[in-house]
Amino acid sequence: xxxGIIGKKIGMTQLFxxxxxxxxxxxxxxxxxxxxxxxxxxxDGYNAIQLGFGKAKRLTSPQKGHLQGIDKVxxxxxxxxEDISSTKxxxxxxxxxxxxxxxxxxxxxxxxxxxxxxxxxxxxAGGPKTHGQSDRHRAPGSxxxxxxxxxxxxxxxMAGHMGNRKTTVxxxxxxxxxxxxxxxxxxxxxxxxxxxxxxIRKVVRSASTNL
Length: 211
Fold this sequence. Notes:
Oligomer: single chain
Order of helices and strands: EEEHEHEEEEHEEEE
CATH class of the largest domain: Mainly Beta
Helix content: under 10%
C-alpha cells in the first residue's frame, strides 16, 4: 500500500444512502499518480517515494531530465515511506487500495479570504452600536498594554491575511472509491477551494485505538 496519493478537489455535493439519509460528500479526482523517483537511505539519506500528478503543458530542461521516460506531470509530491523495496519508477498509483468505510486524512490549502478585519478573522464582538459609535462597530479597539510590558505581545489578534494556509482534515470516511474514474467521495468537507490540489493519506489504525 502506498503512503498517499495526489488529487484535485472537484467540489461538494450530496449523496443519498440506501436508508434514505442524505449526506454531504467531497468529490476528489484522486490520481492516477506515477512514481517519478524512489529515494533510498543509502543514496539520499532517507526512504521516500515521489509521485507525479496531472498533465503539464511544458517542462523546463531540468524537469525533462528528471521525468525522462515518464509522462509529463504537473505536480510532484514526496511521501516518506520505509518500505520501498517493491516500488519501481514509472509505476502507476490509484485508489484501488481504498474501500468504503476507510478513513483518510486530506491535506490542502484553505480558501484564501484576502485581508480581513478582526470581526471576520477572529470573531470579535465589535464595539457598541450606541453612545456615539458611528464608525467603530467592527474596530478592534485598544491594543495598549499600559507600562507593563509596554509593548504589543507577539501573536496579538489583529487584522491581516486570512486563509490560504496549509491545513489537514483528519478521519474523513470514504463513501465511494471508483478507481476506474479516479473518483473519491469522502463524507464531510475537505480542505481547499474547488480545483485545488490535495494530498490524501490513508489512516493506519493501530491496535490501541477504538476507531
